[in-house]
């Protein structure tokens, strides 16, 4: 939290090969020690292998797999007051 001014939110540009922001975000997550080209090479290679096996567009497969691993329902933890109120004591 800066003291002087609000930090501007950075805009993630779309991926140069597929033109999709999800792919660019995944490359940034995979990237280690600032080696973006290595992360791109690994991701592009994996997407090519999967697209050859499934015979679909790689971006469509990636988005479908991300939807499969996302939680369908958000689970919130109970507050400390719930435990003290006796509601969980039975």
Kindly list the characteristics that best describe this protein.
single chain; 90 residues; mainly alpha; Ribosomal Protein S7; 4 helices; flat
Descriptive overview:
By secondary structure, the chain is an all-alpha fold. It contains 4 helices and no strands. The protein has helices at 21-30, 36-54, 58-69, 80-84. The model has no long low-confidence stretch (mean pLDDT 88).
In percent, how helical is the residue content? 40-55%
* CATH fold group: Ribosomal Protein S7
Q: What is the 3D form? A: flat
Count of distinct structural domains: 1
Question: What CATH architecture do you see?
Answer: Orthogonal Bundle
Alpha-beta classification = mainly alpha
Radius of gyration: 21 Å
Number of strands: 0
How would you briefly describe this protein structure?
The chain is mainly α and 90 residues long. Helix content is 51%, strand content 0%.
Give the arrangement of secondary structure elements:
Blueprint: H1 21-30, H2 36-54, H3 58-69, H4 80-84
Helix pairs in contact: 1-2, 2-3
């Amino acid at each position: 939290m800066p003291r002087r001014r609000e930090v501007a939110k950075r805009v993630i540009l779309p991926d140069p090969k597929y033109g999709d922001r999800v792919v660019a975000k995944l490359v940034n997550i995979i990237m280690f020690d600032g080696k973006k080209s290595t992360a791109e090479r690994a991701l592009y290679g994996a997407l090519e292998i999967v697209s050859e096996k499934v015979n679909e567009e790689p971006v469509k497969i990636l988005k479908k797999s991300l939807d499969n691993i996302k939680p369908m329902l958000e689970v919130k933890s109970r507050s400390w007051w719930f435990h003290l109120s006796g509601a969980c004591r039975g």
